[in-house]
Amino acid sequence: MTAKILLLPGDGLGPEVVAEAEKVLAALRDRHGLDVSWEYGLIGGAGYDAHGEPLPAVTLEKARGADAILLGAVGGPKYDTLPKDKRPERGLLGIRAALGLYANLRPALLYKELAGASSLKPELVAGLDILIVRELTGGIYFGKRSSAVVENYSVGSHTVAQARVASDTEAYSDFEIERIVRTAFEAARLRNKKLCSVDKANVLESSQLWREVVLEVAKDYPDVEVSHLYVDNAAMQLVRAPKQFDVIVTNNIFGDILSDIAAQLTGSIGMLPSASMNAQGQGLYEPIHGSAPDIAGRGIANPLATLLSLAMLLRYSLKRGDLADKLEQAVQQVLASGLRTGDIAAPGEAKVGTQAMGDAVIARL
Ligand SMILES: NC(=O)C1=CN([C@@H]2O[C@H](COP(=O)(O)OP(=O)(O)OC[C@H]3O[C@@H](n4cnc5c(N)ncnc54)[C@H](O)[C@@H]3O)[C@@H](O)[C@H]2O)C=CC1
Ligand SMILES: CC(C)CC(=O)C(=O)O
Ligand SMILES: [Mg+2]
């Protein structure tokens, strides 16, 4: 049966990088018989501009009916002053919640050709291959929020007549922790059988529950070596000796931050793909980067994170591991040929734009 894909370009550089993914899909269909069709939808600022909502109902309906979704990025300065519930980022959080996409897989892989582009010394990152498993539908991004003006507000012994006070809540249930931790253990089993759980259990109740559940689930995976790190130490270890990690499992906000760090180890955030899966096996695939307003619209963004996200889509949702391998090999060959977008170019090295990079990958498919 023809697989239905929903393309959600979003904002900023989103349409530029998703356009390259569409070209790749067309090439896989025409040259390799991939049985696929696709349509577009609006999300983020683009959704707000057209429908007054960052996640228009029509987009969600299309998403529910799709076999897989490929998203660019959302957000931008134009939308930063909108009411909070209309902000583009709420559209992204909204689709993750509505589809129950709790399991976010963020592989950080160093292509050997990019060892020089990493901020770390080549010997620290050579062969780097980490998988960050991030809980994606709970925690502080979804907890109760409030913001108010409070009279006679006290912090310790200090009281002010009036203060603007805002709060966000980090809350997790054992059920939410258990399912993402199981995802991570299963992934570790297929890799080097090492799982590091990252939390802040020395301070946070929610992290204490997190650690308790990890220890309980670990009993079902005696073949996997488990360790625990506080998030501050984990951030340091990622830039000190990143190759000590195999699979990292962590909550929504820590995973968000640690994956941006891991991205830079591989040369650029423009290289890191992700897959977000729900309990039914439906997936949304997206680069881990944002809409990059500083470079959007100039045709210079790196499309490889999006093309590698498409490879994950082919592997996990369309069960075409053969074509995923082909696409990943094409990316590797393009890097080996010396092509570089600005984010991965060494000082003084020639740079190519988004379309030239996409075309070079397609030429190798
Ligand atoms: N998944 C999403 O849609 C996300 C959206 N955002 C939104 O994106 C907007 C910008 O956020 P920032 O914090 O600046 O993060 P960002 O990830 O958009 O950009 C951070 C830096 O990385 C660079 N960069 C990002 N992607 C690149 C690519 N493909 N090629 C080359 N360079 C790339 C940017 O030019 C910038 O210097 C905000 O509105 C934010 O809320 C941020 C993160 C994720
Ligand atoms: C809206 C944000 C939570 C998006 C983000 O930074 C991410 O998912 O990495
Ligand atoms: Mg992020």
UniProtKB/TrEMBL annotation:
Record's subcellular location: Cytoplasm
Binding annotation for substrate: R96, R106, R134, D232
Cofactor(s), names only, from the UniProt record: Mn(2+); Mg(2+)
Pathway info: Amino-acid biosynthesis; L-leucine biosynthesis; L-leucine from 3-methyl-2-oxobutanoate: step 3/4
Domain of life, source organism: Bacteria
Keyword Cytoplasm: yes
Pfam family membership, one: Iso_dh
Bilayer-crossing regions: none
Cofactor, how bound (note): Binds 1 Mg(2+) or Mn(2+) ion per subunit.
Protein name: 3-isopropylmalate dehydrogenase
Gene name, Swiss-Prot/TrEMBL: leuB
